Amino acid sequence: MNFDLQLFSERNLKNQTSNQLRKGIRSLSKRIEEHFAKIANPEKYYSDWNVEKDKQAGRIGHWQHEIKKFAESIQSRIDELAKRGEQP
Fold first, then answer.
1. In this predicted model, which residue has the larger pLDDT, 75 or 11?
2. What are phi and psi of 21, to 5 degrees?
3. Interior CA angle at 9 toward 27 and 35, to 5°?
4. Alpha helices in the chain (DSSP H)
5. Could you read off the pLDDT of 41-58 as tens digits, one per residue?
6. Which residues lie closer than 8 Å to 37 by C-beta, 6 or more apart?
7. Model pTM?
8. Residues 6+ apart with CB under 8 A from 49
9. Using CA atoms, how far apart are residues 33 and 71, in angstroms rounded to an integer?
10. DSSP state of 17
11. Of residues 30 and 5, which shows the higher confidence score?
12. Domain spans of the chain?
């Protein structure tokens, strides 16, 4: 049985401590930076980048999708902290 842990954690934000929410924001921010770095310099991360050109668009699309999902997750955590009257 497969579980989408990110989806589960999104529904569980109310049960997380403020420190856990902030840690999640930091972690997701790092993941966004990593994905932007991959988009900027894919050859660094994939030695076959110039060989498998048919996979390039798919990989870039995946990274862009992940950036969007990570940003949404960050916003969810910021919103939860705001509900608590706290800063991220």
1. 75
2. -65, -45
3. 35
4. 5-11, 18-40, 42-45, 56-83
5. 999 999 899 998 888 999
6. 44, 45
7. 0.84
8. 42, 43, 56
9. 11
10. -
11. 30
12. 17-83
Cα 47 from Cα 73, distance rounded (Å): 30
| Residue with the two structure tokens 């999708």 | 65
Q: Which residue in this structure is represented by tokens 């996979």?
A: 55
Q: Does pLDDT of 6 surpass 60?
A: no
Phi-psi region of 85 (alpha: psi -120 to 50; beta: other; left: phi over 0): left
**49, amino acid identity:** W
Give the DSSP letter of residue 4.
-
Cβ-in-10-Å burial (0-12, 13-18, 19+) of 21 comes to buried
How far is the first Cα of the chain from the last one, in angstroms, to the nearest whole number? 34
